[in-house]
Amino acid sequence: MADTREMTLPVLPLRNGVVFPHMVVTLRIETEEGITAVAAAEQSDGLMLLVPKVNGKYSSVGTVAQIQDAEGGNLVVEGLARAEARLVHVRGLRAGRKSSTLGGSDANS
């Protein structure tokens, strides 16, 4: 059975590409929005929501990811689970989104 729950996570918009569960990738963090999202994730449990952003619009589905390493503007993350995302603002952070996992960590669910 799928692990479905609602969580509030910082959002890191992906302008080029998609990250799926079980992928480990290095991302370059250069925008203020990205820097804010990473800082918020590091202050909690290191979880964030990676969401494709195309033509200024966020996708409705992303990937919950765990920060593995963050140094010098580079971020190494591991995709954990797909997620449905709904935009919300949390404590003034533009990067706040609410998500519930879709099918746990199985990318084919």
Give short descriptive properties of this protein.
109 residues; mainly beta; Archaeosine Trna-guanine Transglycosylase, Chain: A, domain 4; 5-stranded mixed β-barrel; 1 helix; globular; disordered C terminus
What does this structure look like?
There is one protein chain. The chain has 109 residues and is mainly β. It has one domain (6-97): Archaeosine Trna-guanine Transglycosylase, Chain: A, domain 4. It contains 1 helix and 7 strands. It has one helix at 32-43; strands at 6-14, 24-28, 47-54, 57-58, 61-71, 74-87, 96-101. The chain has a 5-stranded mixed barrel. Strand 5 and strand 6 form a beta hairpin. It is globular. The N and C termini lie close together (10 Å). The relative contact order is 0.31. Residues 94-99 and 105-109 have low confidence and may be disordered.
Number of helices: 1
**How are the strands ordered across the major sheet?**
1-3-5-6-7
What fold name goes in the CATH topology slot? Archaeosine Trna-guanine Transglycosylase, Chain: A, domain 4
Instruction: Compute the number of strand runs.
Output: 7
Counting helices, strands and paired strands, the structural category is mainly beta
Bin the strand percentage.
Answer: over 45%
Q: Mean pLDDT, nearest integer?
A: 82
pLDDT < 50 stretches: 94-99, 105-109
Specify the overall morphology. Answer: globular
CATH class term: Mainly Beta
Strand count, sense and barrel status of the largest sheet are: 5 strands, mixed, barrel
